[in-house]
Amino acid sequence: MTGANVPLRVGGAGTLQQQVIQSAKGIDLTLPAVEEDIPSDHISFMRGGLPEVILTTPDFSVIHTPGDTVEKISARPLEQAVAVALRFLDDAAKASLK
């Protein structure tokens, strides 16, 4: 889903979600929050009471269908997801050193 050719969004725990949104701003990327529940691997963390966050797209139309093929992957949203994740981790590491 992250490779779909639609804008990235962030879902998850409120505090982490807001921190990822701030990290995205640091690389000049507007990252809207996803308000609805997203069925994905992060759910097990949420159910376990652990803070969780997910970078995703709102396009669930072809996931796990015969139309879910490599040709539908777009590099740009994947690059953005990696850049946001790295910035978030860097920001978190710097904050823990203070």
First and last CA, distance? 35 Å
Q: Say what oligomer this is.
A: single chain
Q: Which class best fits the helix and strand makeup? A: mainly alpha
Which shape, going by the Cα principal axes?
globular
Number of strands: 2
Major sheet, described briefly? 2 strands, antiparallel
Q: In sequence order, what are the helices and strands, one letter per element?
A: EHHEH
Question: Which stretches of 5+ consecutive residues score pLDDT under 50?
Answer: none
Strand content: 5-15%
| Total discrete domains | 1
Report the C-alpha radius of gyration, rounded. Answer: 14 Å
Total helical elements? 3
Helix content: 40-55%
Strand order of the largest sheet: 1-2
What number is the mean pLDDT? 87
Would you mind describing this structure in some detail?
The protein has three helices and two strands. It has about 100 residues and is mainly α. Helix content is about 40%, strand content about 10%. It is globular. The termini are far apart. The protein has helices at about 15-25, 45, 75-95; strands spanning about 10, 55. A two-stranded antiparallel ribbon has the order 1-2. The chain has one domain. The longest helix is centred in the C-terminal third of the chain and has 23 residues, at about 75-95. α1 (about 15-25) packs across α3.
